[in-house]
Predict the structure.
Amino acid sequence: MIAGSTLTGTLYGVAAGALWGLVFVAPEFCGDFGPLQQSVARYLFYGGIALLLIAPRWNRLRPHLGRHEWFGLLWLALAGNVVYYVLLASAVQMAGIALSSLVVGFLPVTITIIGSRDKGAVPLTRLIPSLLLCVAGAACIGWEAMLPADGAAGATRLLGLLAAIGALLSWTCFAVGNARWLNRLEHVSEHDWSLLTGVVTGGIALLMVPLLPLLEDTSHDASSWMRLALVSAGIAIFASIIGNALWNRMSRLLPLTLVGQMILFETLFAIIYACLWEGRLPTLPETAAFLLLVMGVLACLAAHRPRPGKRGEALAAAHPPL
């Protein structure tokens, strides 16, 4: 049997992944805009909506937010949103989707390995089957990356690889740091923490607006800007506001060694949405990746299930004698 909190947390992770998967479809609607423009537009809406939602509760939250918490929010906003998205978009442009997805697909592995050092975590040896399945799934998604890209310069591809590794490290730091912040915060809900992260992210995006004319082409007509605004608002509401709130709720219910596995659902739903968008069935590597990633999550859930011989010890630890 799976504990109620584990099952509930997993469902929150599935829902968050379903909403985050939309991020991979959004650029198809705004292909005439650069990654920096799309990122700034999305996070401006995220920050603005988050500010409106957090305003009624500000007086209650303010006493619990000191300089340490604000520095934490700034760091999380950079690592999990701005820096990650810019690095990922750059990796896709320079090295292609295959290589980028292959590298970023190792997120469950890096997060799980770090989380295995936390107090009370499941031993890493019990997680090896799940980690191997994750690696195999990531390899299936990015198998084309093993082949030389037609006409791509080696130096450009290398820079793309470095950008993808940077995105991997950036989001690993965010996932670990965010989970630990949520465990420390007692008087701030996971939804309010997500909204506060959005406010800080929006502030960073606002500071980046003057850079847009210098770095990317801004000569678009009014209808194109309106399309970018509508897509960015939709992604901000569903992926950033709702998706992040679901992820934070999950992070409080699950151990860090299981939190890392939940990012796989973003990849799974991205595959599903890509096939629906392109009007095709999944390819053989995509199907294999889907099955391997699902098996990896199930193996991780099984590893976190209390063993019969340890049940008494777990109950004793949870309820020590007076």
Observations:
- Residues 95 and 152 are 8 Å apart (CA to CA).
- Residues 4-305 form one domain.
- The radius of gyration is 20 Å.
